[in-house]
Write a structure and sequence with these properties.
about 290 residues, Glutamine Phosphoribosylpyrophosphate, subunit 1, domain 1, 2 domains, alpha+beta, single chain, 13 strands, five-stranded antiparallel β-sheet
Length: about 290
């Protein structure tokens, strides 16, 4: 069980997931974002459902993309077609030969893709279901946190760029990990920009904001309770406390104008910006053993 989400925004695609895996009654925590680079493009995969089958299908997709003959991949659609054909074969091989269209999909995959030869010169987001694939126009979620994720994202009125999508993604994962069984561990977030640049971030970077969101929810709940139960004077006092607290959170998160520039300089040393997959893998998996 898990939650993974993808966002289509002005400057590219953002994709995110938690890191909790459950199998045989054992919980483990491993990155669920799988980056890949091939001769004519890049992709970032995320999955939900049966993790063993999903990861196997993703690995087969990456192998097929990397072994494709030069010139075969000329657009994002060509990448999506290869993913669909591969997942279609794998699903029927390992799940069932004749999937029931009315049944749930055993696993689902989100794929942010970018082809350097694409006519539109933009990245794109796709989602699989059983052996099919479709293009995502705004955002989508997969996994046990699907319904809560969609509710949270819709309530935040969408995102217009990757940086705002990163905030929405962090909040969505924080809420899902708090309330949905099977969602947990570190949050992993990656973006694929229209120029092919990939940026990855994981727990150490997202945890301060997740903690701030937990504080925000607690303060907002107390204010709502005060609205419904307190006297006018009590509500005015609660509203003043809420205002001070929220303004403090905004400063702590460097969202106010005075601290944005300082935060940008700090984030340069924290974020890993790459044009390939290996560094993103290191970012999402944490320190490597020698």
């Amino acid at each position: 069980m898990t939650i993974a989400a993808g966002f289509v925004v002005r400057d590219g695609i953002l994709i995110c997931s938690d890191s909790e895996h459950s199998a045989g009654g054992i919980l483990t925590h491993e990155p669920k974002l799988v980056p890949a680079e091939f001769s004519s493009g890049k992709a970032i995969f995320a999955s939900a459902g049966n993790s063993e089958l999903a990861v196997a299908a993703i690995q087969k997709c990456i192998h097929t993309l990397r072994s494709s003959r030069g010139g075969r991949i000329k657009s994002n659609k060509d990448i999506a077609d290869i993913i669909e054909k591969t997942v279609h074969t794998e699903y029927r091989k390992h799940v069932c030969t004749k999937p029931d269209p009315n049944a749930d999909s055993t696993y689902e995959i989100l794929a942010a893709v970018w082809c350097e030869k694409d006519p539109e010169q933009q990245a794109a987001l796709y989602r699989t279901w059983q052996g099919s694939i479709r293009k995502v126009s705004r955002y989508d979620c997969v996994g046990s946190g699907y319904y809560l994720g969609r509710y949270v994202i819709e309530s935040m009125a969408g995102a217009v760029d990757i940086e705002r999508a990163r905030v929405v993604a962090t909040y969505t994962l924080a809420i899902a990990k708090r309330f949905v069984e099977g969602c947990g561990g570190n949050s992993h977030i990656a973006s694929l920009k229209h120029d092919g640049t990939v940026i990855g971030s994981s727990g150490p970077e997202t945890e301060p904001m997740e903690q701030a969101f937990r504080t925000f929810d607690e303060r907002t709940t107390r204010l709502l309770f005060s609205l419904l139960t307190a006297s006018d004077a009590g509500f005015s006092s609660a509203l003043s406390d809420y205002d001070r607290g929220i303004r403090g959170l905004r400063i702590d998160l460097a969202l106010d104008e005075n601290s944005k520039e300082a935060a940008k300089e700090q984030m340069k040393s924290l974020r890993t910006t790459i044009r390939g997959g290996s560094t993103l893998e290191a970012t999402l998996s944490g320190p490597q053993r020698k």
